[in-house]
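From the pipeline queue, job 12 of 40. The input is one protein chain; the requested action is below.

Action: predict structure.
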Amino acid sequence: MIKLPLFKINSMLIKKLTPIIAILLFLGIAGFLGYNYYNTQKQLSEYKEHSDVQAIKEKYDLIKKIGKITLLPENEEPTIATVKDAYTLKEQKFFYRAENGDKVIIYAQSSRAILYRPSINKIIESAPVNIRDLQGSVATAQLAQAENTKQSTESVLGTEEQKEPAKIAVYNGTKTMQGMASKVSNFLQSKYDEKEIEIKELSNTDELFEDTVVINITKKYDNLTKNLVSLLAAKEEQIPEDDDLPDVDILIIIGADFSPDILK
């Protein structure tokens, strides 16, 4: 019997085992990757399920709070939206007193809408409305499409992009309402945040004004100008010719017709 050298036996054995080792190694790696993939997908599925459940819980907690304040329509699923940019919506009567962070609850079948402020747990506005008109006007203010309850409970109201705050001057055009420019300035700063407006100048006019006016000097803030006209019950005026205007975007002049009750 011929005996092969030991190193030749080992070499032949290695050649025979190499494909087997490669297959086992491949199966091991594939199994490891498959197991990790399965776990990852399972975790993502659990996270999504948890998010959906959490969103639904938050919605019904909100409805429960509002239901303690007012009687809500029964057997109807509402759509809920969050006001993110109030000034783009204030031209509409329903949103006249809206603030960022308010919730809008819309019952389409009952044709009813509710404006609710979570920060003080109060209903700001509740009215029977034409839902199509409301949704149409909201769309012009860039209302993000509301998804149904099982997907996402909220949409966003008023997301008009404004790159820099509008510079505003407030003049008191009366002699009977002292300090009104300052009061109106404080009122506006309570309605808008610093990213929307910046009060640059407070002053008194040399002449008296019967009407409260808003002048869009730079023509850069049309929506804001319209909103200020509505908010202050003012008139929008064109830029006067040959007039010494302040270096701002919008000029507000308080006239004798201005009602201090607006500031309440």
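Job complete. Confidence is low (pLDDT under 50) at residues 137-154.
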